[in-house]
Amino acid sequence: MKNIPELLFRVIRVCTVIVLISELLSLFGNMDWRFELFEHFRVQYFVSLVLASVGFMVLKKKKWALVSTIASVVNIFYFGHLFLPFYSDANSHMVKFAEINVLVSNQNYQAVEEFIINNDPDFVTLLEISKSWSDNLKVVTKKYPYIKKVTRSDNFGIMILSKFDLSKVAEKSAFDVPYYSGTIEVKNKEIFIMAVHPFPPASGELYKIRNDQFSLFQKTIKDSKSKYKVLMGDLNMTPWCRRYFSFIKGATLIDTNKGYGPKFTWPQGLLFPLGIKLDYIFHSKNIETAEFFVGDSVGSDHLPIFAKIRL
Fold this sequence. Notes:
Elements lengths: L3 H23 L6 H7 L2 H17 L3 H18 L14 E8 L7 H11 L3 E5 L3 H6 L1 H6 L2 E5 L7 E5 L6 E5 L4 E9 L2 E8 L7 H20 L4 E7 L7 H10 L2 E2 L23 E5 L4 E7 L10 E6 L1
Parallel strand pairs: 1-2, 7-8
Antiparallel strand pairs: 1-12, 2-4, 3-4, 5-6, 6-7, 8-10, 9-10, 11-12
Helix pairs in contact: 1-2, 1-3, 3-4, 8-9
């Protein structure tokens, strides 16, 4: 029994060292796709190090408690901004948006339709849309008068459903991946819309292509003359990695998640304690978020997101 505290200390110390090394590697996230992977788990680093600090204090290992406490606080600088709400001079006109990565192999069409029907968004972006998905979304495709879609057998099909005219929204390509951009009119106010799904940075080549896609999206939204702007999609980055901060700065956008704390959209399921956020609805700084939430499972590996914005 006397050896139990020492054994416990060794276990906590080993786990802490692993987390500290991972956190250290995350500091080089802008240099290589492998290092960027370590950036995605800052919330988990924070929770792990806080628990380790408590354990070290109970075991009276003050130096280790101090090290783990300082290391845990570092992570707050990366995700703490999500607790801070953003306010603008927007008036009271509301527009509702939803984004769902449905997962091309998922067949729970009813759950996706129920999420859309229950929340009644004005504009919906659906990702990983195949012909099967297009054919089976029979209820919502009747509900929305304006629809555009690109069906594909891989992970990059896309569909947008809107209550507003989409005649000025066009399909475009970013390195052979389709996306939509253009303007819709809401109560005599023009909103520039982008619905995107860049590559996941799963290799050095894809990492470079994804970053080039980001540059294209930034330029496209900055070049728009519209006063109001919204960009939404699965961006394959987390809101506590440095690529995220450079992206929203370059595009001059605000995350609808801001003010609601860290949220997680992937992977839904058994690995969800290791979850990260990949799905977004961004808006320009003259718009204000009135509501944001992550929905329940729709059978995909991603969870759906919903935002109500005030123009």
